Amino acid sequence: MDYDVIIIGGGAAGLMCAATAGARGRRVLVIERANRIGKKILMSGGGRCNFTNLDVAARHYLSANPHFCKSALARYTPADFIALVERHGIAYHEKELGQLFCDESAKQIVRLLQTECDAAGVRIEVDCEATAVEHDDDGFRLTTSKLGTLRCASLVVASGGLSVPSLGGSGYGYQLARQFGHTVLPTRAGLVPLTLGGTHLDDFAELSGLALPAETRCGKTAFRAGLLFTHRGLSGPAILQISSYWHIRDALAIDWLPDLDAHDYLAEQQQAHPNAELRTALSAVLPTRFAQRLCERWLGSKPMKQYRPAELRELAARLHDWPIVASGTEGYRTAEVTLGGVDTRELSSSTMASRKLPGLYFIGEVVDVTGWLGGYNFQWAWASGHAAGEVA
């Protein structure tokens, strides 16, 4: 064998797996088709990498099998990765909701992983991709674009999903899964801006660039965070989060005043400022441009003293449950993750090993486990990579 383990993909999961396997004395090769490792790490968190979250549980992940992620996450926790970060002297901070970011740069996380791989004797080759993979009684034989033909006992697929193709996203991992008899569940873009069309886009077009806190709802799922109007539709954390739960034609609603009882507020304004118009009252608790647009396009505006109690109740209900008709998403081009992927029913939850072919493993985004925004997907990468690296 040329190597004990070959890992296809030099992202977060692949590098964690490589360092873990290498530390066990395994001869490990990582091949990465891009011109450098960790490209998605480098662009994450605004360049500071939201590398984990203090509160990680199965409820933060979407999967056809919601229990699958529990084993790996329990065996490699946020505390484990934080200890690694601290051992490398990387300063970090909690931004909000348990989200941990580097104080300086995402480059520090890539350097950490590179250093761990170097210490474990891992070989990393960039600008190298597998053009063919075969299996026989002796293991796997890979034909590569740069290193010729290689053999290994264990093959780990850590090639990511379809999100952000400009950073190397591709469907190669799904292709390999199917080749070796695995089911690949339907994929779609997740953590992605929503688009609006026609009059729905026209209604908000002039608000592009404006941000405000809001609560988005789809079915029984809700997220309270920032919302951003764009020239194509809606974005911001509240939209990215709900996008993973939203399907075309699903009802979507927004609470424009999530931290306020709109009816109580409007009634108070009616008493305190009876001659002030509705748009003025709303401008005190919403961005002025947005409050004016709501009144001009939908709500109208008259002095507060002219509103009957039933009208105030109706206004409040609309502000707390505003229907939005999205036409779609911006797709994989801007999606942070890919939903769906290799069916977890055909993998071991403790080792990420294929139940169909000994020596084959799938880790990270290629698997049907997708986290919320806020460091959860990186923690899945660390946990699943570590799980496979301990046995591959």
Automatic annotation (TrEMBL):
<dbReference type="Pfam" id="PF22780">
    <property type="entry name" value="HI0933_like_1st"/>
</dbReference>
<dbReference type="InterPro" id="IPR055178">
    <property type="entry name" value="RsdA/BaiN/AoA(So)-like_dom"/>
</dbReference>
<feature type="domain" description="RsdA/BaiN/AoA(So)-like insert">
    <location>
        <begin position="188"/>
        <end position="337"/>
    </location>
</feature>
<keyword id="KW-0285">Flavoprotein</keyword>
<keyword id="KW-0274">FAD</keyword>
<dbReference type="InterPro" id="IPR004792">
    <property type="entry name" value="BaiN-like"/>
</dbReference>
<feature type="domain" description="RsdA/BaiN/AoA(So)-like Rossmann fold-like">
    <location>
        <begin position="4"/>
        <end position="390"/>
    </location>
</feature>
<dbReference type="InterPro" id="IPR023166">
    <property type="entry name" value="BaiN-like_dom_sf"/>
</dbReference>
<protein>
    <submittedName>
        <fullName>NAD(P)/FAD-dependent oxidoreductase</fullName>
    </submittedName>
</protein>
<dbReference type="InterPro" id="IPR057661">
    <property type="entry name" value="RsdA/BaiN/AoA(So)_Rossmann"/>
</dbReference>
<dbReference type="Pfam" id="PF03486">
    <property type="entry name" value="HI0933_like"/>
</dbReference>
<dbReference type="InterPro" id="IPR036188">
    <property type="entry name" value="FAD/NAD-bd_sf"/>
</dbReference>
